[in-house]
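Input chain follows. Return structure tokens only.
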Amino acid sequence: MQFRRLGRSGLKISALSFGSWVTFSNQVDRKRAETMLAHAYEAGINFFDNAEVYARGKSEEVMGDALKRLGYDRDTWCVSSKVYFGRVDDPRPTQKGLARKHVMEACHAALRRLQVEYLDLFFCHRPDPETPIEEVVRTMNTLIGQGKIFYWGTSEWSAAEIATACAYAERLGLEGPTMEQPQYNLFHRQRMEVEYGPVFREYGIGTTIWSPLASGILSGKYSEGIPEESRFNVKGYEWLRDMIDSERGRKRVQAAGELATMASQLEASPAQLALAWCLRNPDVSTVILGASRPEQLRENLGAIEVYERLEDSIVERIEELTEAVAD
């Protein structure tokens, strides 16, 4: 496993990490979660990603139980949570957003569910137009001061919002955001590669990217339809079907099929090739893997080896192949 600094911080996290979005509780029970977390840890992964909204908190409970049973030394791994969506079924005004009350209570709830004394990373899962950014910065620093979180960051914030948070932190002598968690893959590139450039350079923001396989499209598994066990069939995630049911989605599936042909020539799987491409970006601190089966996780971990032998000429061919359907 390779390790990279999280932005300009001193924290080193594995270039590949393991997340639980959609899978834990929905597709993965506690026993299988323990098996996959053990395999990830033994392969060198030291960062596990989660959020309050994943499976309405049950994802964190599954991960917390599994990590407790595995008994790894707490100082050898990092875990995250995210705050914003709260109770997605029917949240009351104080149960969502980034107001100080919800952020503090969401942190305490995540600590209970994950069965840890602190969160290594704590993300603002979305920007909150109803809460002043200064309030968010101050609240996150309160949690840092209490030892409940070590680093805080954002997810899917605009570059301007991140810069504003950094400016408030500098002015107040506080800790600004250390990392952003954006979607990034061969089909979704503009924000990561263009919009965020200035904040990466000026503030040294690290990234923990999600959906590196475009919810599985880049793995090539949808070339012949949607498998029964796919996340596209998970209740509450039907919106993911829009990614392949539209005309553009079908073109992306076709491009993924062509990527699979290229991957076979490199003796790699299409998923490994797509993940290796993400690792080529120097602004990527870690690529979050998602998996519902141990064999799927093992395959994706092979992306490190593919990355090490990925030549510029291959990268150019990959980008030419997907350019027409990227945004």
